[in-house]
């Protein structure tokens, strides 16, 4: 939600999730028209289940795919791992290869696959976006009370900040010494 607002986009919010209403919005000629759609894998799965039940005629399937390819510029999946069968079936239905990404409310988008469809690697959230630094960490069994250490790096966009140490047996134990990164 923050990224579209950052660039001045109009966000269309629905009071609750309804696969029927989402498909109607995709196919509607009313404004504002959807041109970017972002959802979690579960939403895509529910939309495909609805599609399988209600868009059974080949002419309806062809129409739906044509509208999605022509009117929707980008479809994005995030917040959970995207199963390969969901990625493949969604492409067959809409003509869109979902862009996988990673972000959080606290930092916005951090990692993203490439916009170029052919360069996307299924199962990968991509590489750091401009200004984002990433650090990979390993287990730390010697650390008292916690079997791992949380590390991350940020950038000038404000992703630097205190990072809570979350352990299964000691949630929100405290804050790591500054400077620390999300």
Report on this model:
This protein is of the alpha/beta class. It has 2 domains: 1-131, Rossmann fold; 133-167, no CATH class. The chain contains 5 helices and 5 strands, in the order H-H-E-H-H-E-H-E-E-E. It has a 5-stranded mixed sheet. A hairpin with a 3-residue loop joins strand 3 and strand 4. Helix 3 (41-54) packs across helix 5. The protein is globular, with a radius of gyration of 20 Å.
Amino- and carboxy-terminal Cα gap: 19 Å
What's the total count of β strands? 5
Give the assembly state of these chains. Answer: single chain
> What is the total domain count?
2
Beta content: 5-15%
Give the CATH level 1 class of the largest domain: Alpha Beta
Over all CA atoms, what is the radius of gyration? Answer: 20 Å
The class by helix and strand makeup works out as alpha/beta
The poorly predicted ranges are: 152-182
Which word captures the global form? globular
Widest sheet, order of strands: 1-2-3-4-5
Residues in helices, as a percent range: 25-40%
CATH architecture of the largest domain: 3-Layer(aba) Sandwich
Task: Tell me about the largest β-sheet.
Answer: 5 strands, mixed
What is the mean pLDDT? 80
Number of helices, counting only DSSP H or I runs of 4 residues or more? 5
What is the N-to-C order of secondary-structure elements (H for helix, E for strand)?
Answer: HHEHHEHEEE
CATH topology of the largest domain: Rossmann fold
Family: Belongs to the ATP-dependent AMP-binding enzyme family.
Pfam families: AMP-binding (PF00501)
InterPro entries: AMP-dep_synth/lig_dom, ANL_N_sf
Domain AMP-dependent synthetase/ligase: 1-140
């Amino acid at each position: 939600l923050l990224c579209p607002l950052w660039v001045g986009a109009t966000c269309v919010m629905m009071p609750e999730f309804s696969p029927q209403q989402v498909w109607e919005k995709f196919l509607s000629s009313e404004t504002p028209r959807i041109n970017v759609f972002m959802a979690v894998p579960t939403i895509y799965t529910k939309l495909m289940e609805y599609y399988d039940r209600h868009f059974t005629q080949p002419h309806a399937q062809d129409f739906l795919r044509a509208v999605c390819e022509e009117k929707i510029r980008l479809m994005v999946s995030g917040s959970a791992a995207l199963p390969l069968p969901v990625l493949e079936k969604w492409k067959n239905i809409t003509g869109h290869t979902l862009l996988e990404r990673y972000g959080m409310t606290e930092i916005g988008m951090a990692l993203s696959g490439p916009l170029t469809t052919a360069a996307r690697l299924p199962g990968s959230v991509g590489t750091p976006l401009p200004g984002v630094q990433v650090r990979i960490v390993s287990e730390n069994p010697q650390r008292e009370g916690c079997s791992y250490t949380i590390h991350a790096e940020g950038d000038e966009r404000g992703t630097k900040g205190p990072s809570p140490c979350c352990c299964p047996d000691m949630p929100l134990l405290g804050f790591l010494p500054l400077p620390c990164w999300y």
